[in-house]
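Worked example 3 (structure in, sequence out).
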């Protein structure tokens, strides 16, 4: 007997009368996996509970921020104490200093920081800063890497290896993306060609050093080191978008894991402990161009929000004192090994790093978005719907990664690996 989703369906019918598409972020609509979205009533530890009373082991974790799981006591305590003092001041407060100091301690490549309200805002601001610092216009990005929905980064690759970005969204003028150059991941020659063609006009290369928005496309350290070297030689900046990988793969993120120091880096998710937040930072000589010190304007009413600063600090401090990152890496590795063992004869590979993993329904590992099987999304629909029936909540997209939290027990993960293995074998 299948699960009952009647209340969720009724709520979605109400939602579409008031909210565009019934949602406030497109992937929540479940269009990529079929059916209508689940309406969540509450989260507790590693579990989600929907309005129909169904319970799910959650591998989405609000798309990454909930590294301690849902409603963790230290986070709830931080929210309560901070909210008693006020939800927002529009003024400076000690909490933003405390979180900045903690982030700098964990990420020593960051000399100065600025907090904002989202990952999109962090990237937008870092790119503006890079252009001002270099006095150049063009940005190199990579297909398969997502950097938020600001106009000039909503660009996708054309048919050639070396291409100008073309708008990937209606409403984005081509003029906005004409300075955005898009290359395939793991393609050094395409990047060299850009610098040959525009030797004095590339302000920065931006990359997710652990691409995790179009599958988990783990990159060679040599490729990332190549990007570090070619930007340095050409007077451009290297920007690491660590909105997902920051504090997920190591305390110091992918920069620590690969031992590569970017000029600027962007963050979000975990540093807000589940509340809206973003940050960007890097070399002091670059960051000092920001107003009020310099001519680059950036501002935000809710930047450095006291609740988000408190929950972010509580999360990072808890991970530090409990050896959280090592435990998460061990737990995730054990889960992925068991799932690989369960599916050893199937067309699937499951890359992982830190507390990230991806169920890729094809046999060959991939480093580039162009190499993801066209059948992947269709097969994933079956995996997603059957996983829901088994009480497992995966991301409602074949191209989103899974997240492990400290709340996931070894027993939970063993049971989930067996269930997912059985489902994958049947696809």
């Amino acid at each position: 007997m299948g699960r009952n989703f009647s209340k969720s369906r009724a709520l979605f019918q109400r939602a579409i009368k008031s909210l565009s598409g019934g949602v406030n972020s497109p992937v929540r609509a479940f269009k990529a996996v079929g059916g209508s979205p689940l309406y969540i009533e509450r989260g507790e530890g590693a579990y989600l509970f929907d309005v129909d009373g169904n319970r799910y082991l959650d591998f989405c974790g609000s798309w990454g921020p909930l590294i301690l799981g849902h409603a963790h006591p230290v986070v709830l305590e931080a929210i309560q104490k901070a909210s008693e003092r006020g939800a927002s001041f529009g003024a400076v407060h000690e909490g933003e200093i405390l979180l900045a100091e903690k982030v700098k301690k964990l990420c020593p490549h960051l000399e100065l920081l600025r907090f904002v309200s989202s990952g999109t805002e962090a990237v937008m601001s870092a790119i503006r800063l890079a252009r001002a610092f270099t006095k150049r216009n063009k940005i190199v990005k990579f297909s398969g890497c997502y950097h938020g929905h600001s106009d000039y980064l909503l660009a996708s690759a054309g048919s050639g290896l070396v291409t100008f970005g073309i708008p990937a969204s209606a409403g984005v003028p081509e003029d906005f993306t004409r300075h955005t150059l898009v290359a395939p991941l793991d393609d050094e020659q395409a990047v060299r060609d850009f610098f040959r063609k525009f030797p004095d006009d590339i302000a920065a290369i931006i990359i997710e050093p652990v691409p995790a928005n179009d599958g988990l496309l783990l990159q060679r350290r040599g490729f990332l080191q190549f990007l570090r070297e070619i930007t340095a030689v050409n007077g451009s900046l290297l920007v690491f978008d660590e909105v997902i990988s920051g504090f997920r793969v190591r305390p110091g993120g992918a920069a620590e894991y690969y031992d590569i120091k970017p000029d600027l880096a962007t963050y979000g998710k975990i540093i807000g402990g589940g509340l809206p937040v973003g940050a960007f930072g890097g070399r002091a000589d670059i960051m000092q161009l920001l107003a009020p010190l310099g001519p680059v304007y950036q501002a935000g009413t809710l930047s450095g929000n006291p609740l988000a600063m408190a929950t972010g600090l509580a999360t990072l401090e808890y991970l530090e004192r409990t050896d959280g990152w090592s435990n998460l890496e061990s737990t995730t590795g054990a889960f992925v090994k068991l799932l690989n063992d369960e599916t050893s004869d199937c067309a699937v590979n499951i890359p992982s790093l830190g507390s990230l993993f991806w169920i890729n329904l094809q046999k060959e590992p991939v480093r580039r978005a162009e190499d993801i099987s066209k059948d992947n999304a269709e097969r994933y629909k079956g995996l997603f719907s059957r996983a829901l029936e088994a009480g497992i909540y995966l991301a409602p997209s074949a191209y989103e990664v899974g997240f492990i939290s400290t709340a996931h027990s070894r027993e939970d993960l063993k049971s989930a690996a067996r269930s997912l293995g059985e489902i994958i074998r049947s696809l």
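Notes: The chain has two domains: 6-71+323-426, 73-320. Residues 73-320 form a domain with the Aspartate Aminotransferase; domain 2 fold (CATH 3.40.640.10).
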